[in-house]
Amino acid sequence: MKKLTALIACLLVLVPFLLVSGCSSSLPASANQSISYQLTQEPVTLDPQIASDPAAVVVVEALFEGLVRLDKENNPYPGVAKSWIANIDYTQFTFSLREDAVWSNGNPVTAHDFVYAFQRALTPSTGSTTASSMYCIKNAKQVHTGALSASELGVSALDSHTLVINLEYTYEDFPALTATAPFMPCNQTFFESTEGQYCLEAKFILGNGPFVMSNRYAWTHGESMKLSRSSSYVGDQPVYPSSLNFTIKSYELAEAFHLLTNGDTDAAPIASSSLESAEQAGCTITAFQDTTWGLCFNTSSELMKHTAIRKAFVQTLNRDALFQHLPKNTAIANDIINPDTTFLGQNYRSQAGSDFYLKQDDASLQAALAALPSLNLEAMPSVTVLCPDTTEAKRMVNEMIATWNTKMGNYFNMEPLSEDALAKRVANGKYDIVLYPIRAKGQEPVQLLSLFQSDSESNPAFLKDPAYDALLTSAESSQGTESLSYYVAAEKYLNDQCVFYPLYYESRYYATAPGVSGIVFHPYDAGIDFIRTEKE
Predict the structure, then answer these.
(1) What CA–CA distance (Å, rounded) separates 135 from 171?
(2) In DSSP terms, which residues pair with 267 in a beta bridge?
(3) Closest Cα partner for 225 from 198, 253, 208, 205?
(4) Burial 294-317 (b: 16+ CB within 10 A, else e)
(5) 3-state DSSP call for residue 480?
(6) Residue 31: alpha-carbon gap to chain centroid
(7) What pLDDT is recorded for position 126?
(8) Whole-angstrom Cα distance, residue 46 to residue 55?
(9) How far apart are CA 72 and CA 520, in angstroms?
(10) DSSP symbols for 391-411
(11) Cβ atoms within 10 Å of 464's Cβ, excluding its own
(12) Phi, psi values for residue 34, rounded to 5°
């Protein structure tokens, strides 16, 4: 009897190892590899409810899992939720959670973890800058502003494995939104036990995703992170990599190609100028058109705070002449919001219309000249235009300057700058006009339009305009087509007031190294999924 008991005990000890071994043996031969990726900045925090920088979002997706995951086409498939159903008008979704989903400490993941996470994300004291993406949930905005208590949020747990979410309006594609960081679950007991240190160190992280911190010292701040495949993760897809190695080091996009080919990283965003070389080297390219380049005006400068003067600089330009110098791998932009933007799951441009850019009109010059005496100026002063230090950008700005020199009777200057230097000058407001890119952090129009709100910390135009702010406020408090009308009005306002003049759309490119496959890149800095990554 004692021998039988001992044998059973030994078998119980071996079962987990046999299961892991069996799982590993069922993976492709190119799985079980260590995958390297270079983060360009130190994550401020890995707390999903407040993580906002791109580096943090990448790591959060590895450590946590929401109700769904997104495939390479950005379509949702089961995550913690094994299935979901909607009511007839898509204003209520019921998610059925996996009974075997657990946290990395073995405790079950429940519907209550999602209720707590959603409430916490929207509680004002949390200070989440990404919680606005949850405003489609009933009462979410009122909770976030403090007008209602978190208990009145339209989220409830019918039982431990059934989550019901009520929305403010019809949103058929809502499940896909729940794959993003703010919608990740949070274990209340563990969160409270960290006493304000939640997700700031490896030992204060409790995840439910496909990877875990390798040990309590796996996050060396400013240098690296080491993640290992989770032995407790249960999902629709097996986890291929044995580990993820994140190094933390800033680099210029032009350097990325060399990082890929010398083995420093298995994937990286790359410059469009490196595309041909990357493809010839056997890299796989993924592209997202999510960036709009145009002339951005510093509306806080003494000269450019006048709308009439901004208009003169734009409406005297010959667009056809400018587009003779269109950078390679870009497309002409007739609107500030790019063609791939969606509104409630449908294409925004098809609903809003297009060609909102300010049209050429030389008569605008007379209005500008008439405004100069109020500035104690007799003629248009010389202005320096900032731009990227690339051949195409300099040629396009030279074309602008030639036009302005002729029509305004003065000599204007150009100052080419590196990517980092250009961003710093704009952030510090040390410019009048700049050829500059703007990029949304999500697919909805508000994600781009909110960049220009008065309280935006990343407002490239330093716009402080109550009329513009009011349009976005009205959009957020409205629903459906009424909300859409305010977004359209806000986009037209930026064009008509000549805050930003769109010129061309640029895609962002991601490359995976030769022999590496299965990495899923999400647009708009929404993360990277390494779960099915293989490496030969």
Answers:
(1) 12
(2) 512
(3) 205
(4) bbbbbbebebbbbbbbbbbbbbbb
(5) helix
(6) 28
(7) 97
(8) 9
(9) 5
(10) HHHHHHHHHHHHHHHHHHSS-
(11) 15
(12) -90, 125
- In this predicted model, what pLDDT tens digit does every residue of 259-291 receive, in sequence order? 998 889 999 999 888 889 999 999 999 999 889
Q: At what angle do helices 466-477 and 480-496 cross, to 10 degrees?
A: 160
Higher pLDDT, 272 or 202: 202
Q: What gap in Å lies between CA 90 and CA 175, rounded to an integer?
A: 10
Rounded to an integer, what distance in angstroms lies between the CA atom of residue 204 and that of residue 141? 29
Name the token pair of 385. Answer: 């235009």
Which residue do the tokens 């010389």 mark?
382
User: Over 163-194, what HEC string results?
Assistant: EEEEECCCCCCHHHHCCCHHHCCCCHHHHHHC
Calpha distance 254→272 (Å, rounded): 9
Amino acid letter, 300: S
221-224: long-range contacts, CB 8 A cutoff, minimum separation 24 = 221/42, 222/42, 222/248, 223/247, 223/248, 224/248
DSSP states of 348-388 = HHHHH-S--SPPP-TTHHHHHHHHGGGGT-SSPPP-EEEEE
Answer whether 34's CB lies under 8 Å from 243's CB: yes
Structure tokens at 108: 């079950």
Concatenated DSSP letters of 63-84: H---SEEE-TTS-EEESSEEEE
Residues 6+ apart with CB under 8 A from 323: 332, 504
% of the chain residues with pLDDT over 70: 95
Cα–Cα nearest to 98, from 79, 116, 71: 79
Beta bridge partners of 84: 95
Structure tokens belonging to residue 526: 């929404």
Question: Mapping DSSP to helix (H, G, I), strand (E, B) and coil, where does residue 293 land?
Answer: strand
Q: Is 262 exposed, middle or buried (0-12, 13-18, 19+ CB in 10 A)?
A: exposed
∠ CA 58-204-162, rounded to 5°: 70
Does 446 score more than 50 pLDDT? Answer: yes
Nearest to 438 by CA among 426, 425, 421: 426
Smallest CA-to-CA distance from 55 within 531, 533, 527 is with 527
Give buried/exposed letters for 208-240 (b at 16+ CB in 10 A, else e). Answer: bbbbbbbeeebbeeeeebbbbbbebbebebbbb
Q: Which residue in 437, 119, 189 sits closest to 289, CA to CA?
A: 437
What per-residue confidence (pLDDT) applies to 117?
98
What whole-number distance in Å separates Cα of residue 26 and Cα of residue 107?
26
Look at the chain and count its residues. Answer: 536
| pLDDT tens string 387-399 | 999 999 999 999 9
Contact 80, 103 (CB under 8 A): no
Distance set, CA 41 to CA 52, 54, 106, 478, 509 (Å)? 12, 8, 31, 37, 19
Residue 42: Cβ-neighbour burial (10 angstroms; 0-12, 13-18, 19+) = middle
Residue indicated by tokens 């409790």: 206
